[in-house]
């Protein structure tokens, strides 16, 4: 576009202001390139750390996220999957060390609900957690006796009440954090999926506009600047699509992390041990 406007200026159909404004846009684009190269090199260094290799030994081939398939977020993911999370496992290990009844603790603080509803989007777990009578508002003292040996060691229970309440509070906190992480992951997946679908429509529309502009240029009804403007809109939408798809990948990875590691068809039927 700068070359086209400069050519116009030479024949008097564009001003030096037009040339300067377009030149400023070109300079701005050039100024972004070093930052992008820096990000690329940092990502290669990070890959080297993950793979135990030096950056020089890595070959990073250019590619596109468009060719990678994303597994669907299955509807009806059971909350039992969260028991695999390291923080929950550690909290339960502490409870076991205090002779706690893990089944009773889970029954009191770990509701068995579906983490994802229809189409894998609607997460109803937090409503269960924070509703009336939920673990977020239940009194610790009312469940301590049930969880710690069912009251068979009442004297020991009273003597260690502070420690038991601390362990239960920690367990309750990590469970709430786990369900919140899943909620955030499910919602991020939902909205990035919606955004990707809408961005694909924008790309298709701008592609059609660019095709029409090229046809009109060949017919002599518009000039090159109009064609380049249409192409610029297309490239901008393509860039947005790449960023949205990356965000969708990251949302899926966050959901995997929140669940303590993915899911499979077999795990959908798993029962809490």
Structure, explained:
With 273 residues, this protein is mainly alpha-helical. The protein is 66% helix and 0% strand. Among the domains are: 1-63, no CATH class; 83-115 and 122-177, no CATH class. It contains nine helices and no strands. Residues 266-273 have low confidence and may be disordered.
Feature tags:
single chain; 273 residues; mainly alpha; 9 helices; 66% helix; elongated; disordered C terminus
> What is the H-and-E element order?
HHHHHHHHH
What's the N-to-C terminus distance?
65 Å
Largest sheet: none
Can you give the mean pLDDT?
A: 80
What is the count of β-strands? 0
What general outline do the C-alpha atoms trace? elongated
The class by helix and strand makeup works out as mainly alpha
Annotate the secondary structure layout.
Blueprint: H1 2-11, H2 16-51, H3 86-97, H4 102-109, H5 125-130, H6 140-147, H7 154-159, H8 161-219, H9 224-258
Helix pairs in contact: 1-2, 3-8, 8-9
Summarize the structure.
This protein has 273 residues and is mainly alpha-helical. It has 9 helices and no strands.
